[in-house]
Give the backbone structure.
Amino acid sequence: MMLKPFTHPWGEGLEGTPLKIISMIGACAGFLTFGYDQGIANALTQNPDFFKTMPRLAEDTTVLGTVLALFVLGAMFGCLTMSALGNKYGRRPLILFATITTLVGAGGMAGANGLACFCVMRLLNGYGVGILTSIVPTYVGEISKPRIRGMMMSLELVAAATGLAVSFWVAWAFRHEKGPLGWRLSIAIQAFILLFTLVTMLFAPESPRWLMEAGRVEEGRRVLARLHGQAFADAATLEIQDAIAVEHAAQRGKGYAECFANNDQCFRYRTFLAIGVNAAQQLTGINMATYYSANILINSVGMTPDKAVFVLGFLGVAGWVFMLGGAFVLMDGVGRVRTMIIGAAGCCVGQILLAAGVAHQESKAAGYVATAGLFLFLCIFSATHLPTAFVYSSEIVPLAIRTRSATLGVAVQYILNFVVVMVVPTAIPGMGGWGFYALFAGVNGLMVPVLYFFCPEVSGLSLEDVDSLFTGGKVRMRRTTKVEQVGGIGELEANKVEGSFDHVEKVESGY
């Protein structure tokens, strides 16, 4: 209790809706920083003083790409830290640690007077964000009810889209500020965002599922009761304990090797699914667009810098609106897998339009086609891949390896993110401009059959019932979001008795 509220939260009298709001604000504010940092590079690369302070970046585009990519390299190490320590120390303490780390990194970048300091602080900033983006989806999923879990987990991605939109408008607001204020204040703004996470997480509870996994069953039951009521807590506690017992029976060892065990609960297959959907998110080419969208509009499409930054502001708003549609309509209504398939097909079309427009950029009409392709790509991505990758990778893996497997997936995402951001400045001109976009169009097209044939649908299932898709070492390729239409799962649901987890959810009127 000496470290309270870092080890034990304040406000233990909070319950119901106020507690849920506090927990969600705390968790989602960190994702605002993730989205913000993805887009604020546009403000840096258009500011002369930034290059004056760090002249090496102006001399070599490869160095510029590497320095910007240090953020995602740090994020990868943050994911691996979370993967190793998440089950040991719990969700909440690591969220607080990551928030403080990200805050220090943001302040350090804003005050950097040389390339070395900027690089170290960018790594540190990314390290904190990597922990946040790998632990927050797990935390939110574990404190949410099954029937609204997709929506609740999507709120963090709405926050990321909001951060991206805000960063575009910040770049526009400082477009005429060519001095140090233009880029230093742009970076420092994210520090204010992080204060919401730091304050609200002091009152948020620990994950009830993690508490039960750690043997603190009654403490976990009390957290569930505070969140969702006593009846739900009693029923959910029984199911969570049953799921833990099943997973432990399938578990033969510890550490990362267990994530790839080919056991009765298909740990290996589920880990590859978590890694695969995160890899698919990056292989759409999204960070080519978010980090260098201003450069694409200026150098590939031919816009003036002022016009390009202004267009980006509206693009950020459009992406945010599409993100709301994906998070609150597609994810639970259409399903996770179908949403990703729609995303892959839509992103493919967007990249084709972008490639076609850039290939004939001497024509004014081609410029409009390329701009439309960029808009379509970012809007479709925001509605589909952005919310689903983080959510699906956290849902598909079992509690026994959830932290390690889910964060391995996010770490792979950041590795690919690093590669894309690093090579874009040289790859676009090196492939004739349009060739790079055509490459991503082909990759997006290939994703459609892969997603359909290998990813079972989990929408509508509790985290414990997801295990039923992988019993006996076999994968049930669920296609529908309707539980009663899925064979064995339907039978399992039909036999739920009064007082069970799912029965309590059906008869309760509140969330």
